[in-house]
Amino acid sequence: MNLATKHMYLYGAGGHSKVITEILNSLGTTVIGMFDDSPPMARFKVMEIRDGIRLLGEGFPPLDAPLIITVGNNARRAELASLIGATYGTAIHGTAIVSDQVTIDVGTVVLHAAIIQAGTKIGAHVLINTAASIDHDNTIGDYAHISPHATLCGHVQVGEGTHIGAGAVVIPSIRIGRWCTIGAGAVVIKDIPDFATAVGNPARIIKFRKDLDFVDFPTEPASRNGEVSSNLLNSIVTTPQL
Ligand SMILES: CC(C)(COP(=O)(O)OP(=O)(O)OC[C@H]1O[C@@H](n2cnc3c(N)ncnc32)[C@H](O)[C@@H]1OP(=O)(O)O)[C@@H](O)C(=O)NCCC(=O)NCCS
């Protein structure tokens, strides 16, 4: 499932890139360049992004190896993926157990000891973190993040950009919408609508996010089974993802 390549570039030079670099090294792949456009990372090459078009910065030749976006924030990863025109690689640690009947799209990384069972489909630029357990026939949207030790039982659907917190448990056949946040340790026993943050056992919705520039937010939040009260409409704003 790993793209067999000797070399890889990374976009994002923070903590997550250290983890991915180690995985790649263990697979015999060398990171030959890192890009980062945030000021604290000024020592790294900057890939310029202008007018919605990715460039490898003036003076940079076209990339001669695949790239992985090693940015932990799902929304930022999505934004970068929409701007950067590169061939994307994947990184799957050797200790991860991934069924042959799993599909994994480009840019996705699977960290140490994660387990992904048959029939699961994983989108692009997804982060499957350490020891996450993803059972059979799940569907995980692009840019999602399944945190360490989270457990998704069978037939769970996780929408684009959704973050499942560390140690959360999602029971079988639950649908979690797009750009949701599920708190660390939550136990999700009911479907969760788009943009919701849910915490606790059983998980309850505490707010809806509205901080994504590239999303057309509905004027009314989705509600299922009447469980979302209208005063949640005006709550929130920024949901930290890490
Ligand atoms: C869910 C989460 C995003 C909420 O963060 P936040 O928006 O800053 O929310 P707050 O900390 O203001 O908490 C809001 C309320 O939810 C409660 N809450 C927050 N996180 C909770 C959790 N994981 N479980 C239970 N309750 C939680 C708070 O106690 C607070 O309750 P109160 O209003 O009664 O005081 C965050 O707490 C969380 O769990 N993040 C997941 C982190 C993670 O797993 N990272 C993995 C990195 S690899």
Description:
By secondary structure, this protein is mainly beta. The chain has two domains: 7-83, Rossmann fold (3-Layer(aba) Sandwich), CATH 3.40.50.20; 93-208, Hexapeptide repeat proteins (UDP N-Acetylglucosamine Acyltransferase, domain 1, 3 Solenoid). The chain is 9% helix and 25% strand. The chain contains two helices and 24 strands. The protein has helices at 15-26, 74-83; strands at 7-11, 30-35, 49-50, 53-54, 67-69, 91-92, 97-98, 103-104, 109-110, 115-116, 121-122, 127-128, 133-134, 139-140, 145-146, 151-152, 157-158, 163-164, 169-170, 175-176, 181-182, 187-188, 196-199, 204-208. Strands 6-9-12-15-18-21-23-24 form an eight-stranded mixed β-sheet, with helices on one face. It starts with 6 loop residues before the first strand and ends in a 34-residue tail after the last strand. The model is unreliable at 50-55 and 223-242 (pLDDT under 50). Bound molecules: coenzyme A. The site of coenzyme A has 16 residues, from strand 23.
Stated plainly, the CATH topology of the largest domain is called UDP N-Acetylglucosamine Acyltransferase, domain 1
Largest sheet: 8 strands, mixed
Report helical residue fraction: under 10%
The overall pLDDT average reads 84
Sheet with the most strands: spatial strand order: 6-9-12-15-18-21-23-24
Q: Strand content of the residues, in percent?
A: 25-35%
Secondary-structure element series: EHEEEEHEEEEEEEEEEEEEEEEEEE
CATH class of the largest domain: Mainly Beta
Radius of gyration: 18 Å
Oligomer: single chain
Number of domains: 2
CATH architecture of the largest domain: 3 Solenoid
Q: What is the tally of beta strands?
A: 24
Q: Count of helical segments?
A: 2
First-to-last CA distance: 27 Å
